[in-house]
Amino acid sequence: MTNMHSRKQCLEYLNKIDMPRHIRRHSMLVAKVALFLGELLNRNGSNLDLGLIQTGALLHDVGKEPTLATGQDHAEVGAEMLAGMVSPSVARIVREHILLDSTQIVGPITESILVNYSDKRVMHEQVVSVQARYHDLIARYAKTPLHRERLLEKLKLYLALEEKIFSPLAIEPQGPEIMGLKLNNSEGAGPEHD
Q1: pLDDT digit string (tens) for 98-123?
Q2: pLDDT by residue (tens digit) across 49-87?
Q3: Total number of domains constituting the chain
Q4: Domain with 21 in it: what CATH number?
């Protein structure tokens, strides 16, 4: 198997697995947000691999659709689906895109953390605040008070991460530069538009 690394190869793979349009468009917007932030961070002294960010972001939800009926961990399933097709670094991004703990916030900003954060900024096919994304998650998925509390604790972690990401940047987390990122109508539509 070839090691996917280009945008075109990633999109061809998404076509091959017949990823639903809405998940594809979500992934493409996550990639746009992650690359935007990665470029800004690199201009401010970071040394992030933008190709790795793009590949990880485009592929981060490959396990989503296959796990909808099973309830399996879509991040783990996605990493397994990509085994042997991508580098271990890309598989790690896919596996870790739903995980965050306090130790990651004190460490350096990595490609994996940036894709993870960017995923929390995209609700469906729109850039939103982390708070808006988590309030939606709570409304849709918090079945018990304990689960609601866990999601609120996770929101606090993402807000701390957001502060770390944006502290060296000249833009605000809800500034027009990031909130205005969008896909055009043909992006993510399918093979005939890629």
Answers
A1: 888 898 898 899 999 999 999 999 99
A2: 999 999 999 999 988 888 778 878 888 888 888 888 888
A3: 1
A4: 1.10.3210
Residue 190: the pLDDT is: 58
Q: How many other β-carbons are positioned within 10 Å of the β-carbon of residue 169?
A: 16
Domain-located, residue 146: yes
| Exposure on the CB side of residue 104, measured as CA atoms within 13 A | 22
**Amino acid, single-letter form, for residue 10:** C
CA dist 194 and 191 (Å) reads 5
Burial class (CB in 10 A: 0-12, 13-18, 19+), 49: middle
Q: Does residue 193 fall inside a structural domain?
A: no
Torsion from C-alpha of 67, 38, 91, 87, nearest 10 degrees: 150
